[in-house]
Each structure stands twice: as structure tokens, then as C-alpha cells.
Write a structure and sequence with these properties.
This protein is mainly α. About 75% of the residues lie in helices and about 0% in strands. The longest helix is centred in the middle third of the chain and has 19 residues, at about 15-35.
Length: about 70
């Protein structure tokens, strides 16, 4: 463990409960950001569902169509 983190954690024991709770929530947030599973919001979930349905219906551009668009704009 990083020495600065170690020193800070030792000092936390003397903090008021409210400050310790705030630190705990911050640690949970950081851990979730770096190691957790991302949770889609309602709008994101709806967008994914629409895209999956379009894919099932074959509404996606083919590789050739995409290449043609890129070639026109080069």
C-alpha cells in the first residue's frame, strides 16, 4: 500500500463518524468506477434495445456500404 494512503487511513480513525461515512461512500464510488459493473440508465437501456432490434431486422449497413461512405469522404 502507498505510504500516503497508509498514513491517511491511520488518521481516519480519529475522524467523526459523519466524515468516516463520507470517506466510505467515496471509496465505494471509486471502486465501482474502476472495478464495478456499469449500470445502464433507462435512456441507455432503451437505446441498446432499439439498436438490437434494428440489428435483428437487418437494418444495419453492410461492410461494403460503410466502406463506400468512407471512400466518398476521403
Amino acid at each position: 500500500m502507498n505510504k500516503v494512503v497508509e498514513t491517511l487511513l491511520e488518521r481516519v480513525a480519529d475522524w467523526p463518524e459523519e466524515a468516516q461515512a463520507e470517506l466510505a461512500q467515496s471509496i465505494v464510488d471509486i471502486e465501482t468506477k474502476h472495478f464495478g459493473v456499469y449500470k445502464l440508465g433507462p435512456d441507455e437501456r432503451a437505446a441498446v434495445e432499439r439498436a438490437l432490434e434494428e440489428m435483428r431486422q437487418g437494418k444495419l449497413a453492410s461492410d461494403e456500404d460503410v466502406a463506400a461512405v468512407f471512400n466518398r469522404h476521403r
